[in-house]
Amino acid sequence: MIALATPLIKWSAVGKILLAGLIGGAGVVVVFGFLLLGLSRAARAQHSATRLADYALSAVCGVLVLGAVVAGIYAMVNKPPSPKPKKSAAVLTTPDRRDRLVA
Amino acid sequence: MLILIIVVVTAVSFDFTNGFHDTANAVATSIATAALKPRVAVAMPGVLNLVGAFLSISVAATIAKGIVNPKLITGNTGLLIVLAALVGAILWNLITWYLTLPSSSSHALIGGVIGASVAAAGSKAVDFHALVQTVLAPAVLSPLICLLVAALRTFLAYRLIRLLKADEARRGYRYGQIGSAALVSLAHGTNDAQKTMGVITLALIADGKISPAHFHVPFWVKVICAVAIAAGTMIGGWRIINTMGNRITPVESPQGFAVESSSAAVILASSYYGYPLSTTHVVSGGVMGAGIGKKLASVHWGVAGQMASAWVVTIPAAGLVGAGAWEITNLIGGAASAVVIALIAAALAALVFQRAQRNTITPSDLDRTHVTPATEAAKGTPAVAVAS
Fold first, then answer.
1. How far is B260 from A93, CA to CA, in rounded Å?
2. φ and ψ at residue A8, rounded to 5 degrees
3. Domain range for residue A20?
4. pTM of the model as a whole
């Protein structure tokens, strides 16, 4: 019954993942879309000022996309560490104790 | 010592199957949209899996942690349980590969551990509440989360495409796909290679080769696991790549970008918040979401249903094989039992490979880089229709 006191689904973690996915998801798609749009418009621009503005838009969006990639790598490298095995666990027993268990 | 060597070799073999089974997660959509040639596509995640395996070792030794009573995994008995579990996982990976179905290698390994442990010590050896909390609930939620995220991303991507020329959009999103696929590959390397590192380290502790007071993953274990998963990835699981990239829904480059970037976001967020999700389930859900998010696109629900069935069966099936393997080792006993079970596993693996040769899928079957935009617009049928 003690085990059942803990919820089967960690809703707070699920909510955070969904939120991060949706915000990051929508954000990256929109930003990447504007990056492409800026490049496309710059290639067709008649005036140098317009071209510069479009390139600036692309550059800002490019930085934001790179920022998302860096955030991803940070999340990869900084995973929460797994707890060390408990000292009471038999995986930590000595070879002598182990031999008795095998026998 | 002989049992330990057999366990290490079997663990490395599992890592190899894990690699080629999961290649599809990173590159299936990149190949389907012709963002990359198939050979190049599998080389990229191969290298990134190798790099990822060295980036972080925090996942090591977490397989089945809290689910199976650790007191079982000790001495020769523990080594034989680990061996039986690995045999269950490898054979289930090969069966789902033969059936062209993406399924979770981690779940197969957990299923194998549970089956072997229950066979060895009865059902009290397993904490079923923890199993539901840490494995089954995330398994159900992960495809749904990524489906939702990818559907929204695809919807937004197609709204923005209206402002672009078709050719620019296709080319631009292909570059985006390559970048996001690279991120998924790196994340895969930081997760999956470490699970095998954990298994081998656990075996070394059980055998007394590593002091439990100074828990660490030896460098040679990191190297062989990284090389095995990278080699498996580079071999390319073409059968599963075909299912993921072509048989669930026709994928265009904006959808491919949505799938890979959604998968990367969900996988990395789940890792960061300490709620690990299956990469295979996440990416599969993402592909379905990309189909739902595009107007007039269709998801082949029959294929999706087959995949979902495989996911449901993975843990019990790998568990049954693991339990059977344990019973055989228990019947024979000693180091000889490890040799026998390893030989049986190798023979069954060879049989699956031999049967798979009857309907092979090659990289050239999946290469769409020669497909023109006009023919891509008419795309809607699988590149290779393999009966499973």
1. 44
2. -70, -30
3. 9-102
4. 0.83
